[in-house]
Structures are given as C-alpha cells and as structure tokens.
Design a protein that fits this description.
The chain is α+β, with helices and mostly antiparallel strands and about 220 residues long. Among the domains are: about 5-30 and about 35-90, Acyl-CoA dehydrogenase/oxidase, N-terminal domain (Butyryl-Coa Dehydrogenase, subunit A, domain 1, Orthogonal Bundle), CATH 1.10.540.10; about 125-190, Butyryl-CoA Dehydrogenase, subunit A, domain 2, CATH 2.40.110. About 35% of the residues lie in helices and about 15% in strands. The chain has a 3-stranded mixed sheet. The chain has a two-stranded antiparallel ribbon with strand order 1-2. β4 and β5 (about 155-160) form a beta hairpin. α1 (about 5-25) runs parallel beside α3 (about 70-80) and α5 runs antiparallel to α6. It starts with a helix and ends in a 27-residue tail after the last strand.
Length: about 220
Amino acid sequence: MSVGAAKAAEIAARVEAFVRDVVVPYENDPRRDGHGPSDELVAELREKARAAGVLTPHILPDGSHLSQRETATVLKASGLSPLGPVAVNTAAPDEGNMYLLGKVGSPEMKERFLKPMVEGRARSAFLMTEPAVEGGAGSDPSMMQTTAVQDGNHWVINGRKAFITGAQGAKVGIVMAKSADGACMFLVDLPNPAIRVRTQPKRRKIAMNPTPNIDR
C-alpha cells in the first residue's frame, strides 16, 4: 500500500523528532553494550515511542504496510541513532519478518505471531545461517543442511544453525529448512524446548561518548 510521499515524509519527520529528542540522550545509557541495548532499555524506549505515536511507524493501524520507498524514508529517520530502530520497532530482522508475515501469513499466523511484533512486545529471530565447517548454508538456500520431514500432520526439523541475531530473548522464530520440495520456512514459538542454544558470544562493554552528538 502507498500513502504517498507527503504522508510518508510526515511520518518520517515525527520519527526523526522522536529519535533526536528522546532516543539520542540514551546513547550513553549503561544498559547498552557491544551487543546492543538490554531488553529493559528496549522496553523503556518502546513505551516512550508508543506514547509518542511512533511505534512501528511503517505499519498503519489497519495492518497495511507502507510501500518500499516510503518505508525507506521512515527507516532512514529511525536510523539517526544506533538505538533508533529498536526504539521505534523498525530494526532487522523484525522489520522484514513483519512485512513477510503481513504479506503471506494466515489470519491465525498474524494473530499469534505478527500482532505481538507490531505491538513491540515480541522480537523475532531468523534461523537460516548454518556452520560453514559442515558445508551449511549462508545466504544460499540451495546449500541448506537442515532437513524438514513431514510426519503425519507434523514436521520434524533437524539441523544446526549459527549466527542467529537476537535468538536469546526472541519470542518468534522463522526456521529455514529443506524439505523434499525445496527450501521452506517454519514459524515457531520461542523459547522452544526443541531448540537449544549451545553457545552465545559474551557481552562486551563499549566506549561511551561523554556528550551525545545530535548534529546528524
């Protein structure tokens, strides 16, 4: 759906004002480290974005999505701070996953998985990349080693994934696997007892600027 350049610019202007006035001062918050902001900080910022009417600005109240060009205009404004995208809920992989679910998800999928994401109360993780030492897939799904076999009305998925951004703490998972028909995706609730996180990089501190630079 397209709302037109003027409306998209108006949405982007409100997002930019919010990022500059509210989000930028949080850049030196100790709850942010080399892995990004803590869940506590994200929740705090999103409540402020919700109150300001700029949470998930690229998705309209009726559930429709801005056009690609209009979305880019809004995302550019949210990216004026490293914390901007998570504050207003335009960060990857959630932005793309919300778009995907909005386009092809069934009503049940949208209610169960998409709605909490649009409301900023759930994060998602895209489980595709596999360990290179095992010949697994990176960005090429034809190399997928994770298998999906149908067993009655269930699917049995087996495989190992690597470099899954935001897996810890995510509530919605999209798992890529290869069935007899080719590459496919499965929606799963997270955490899930069948999905085990073996290793996770240690969080590291980052150097904080003594004064935020808002002349962006």
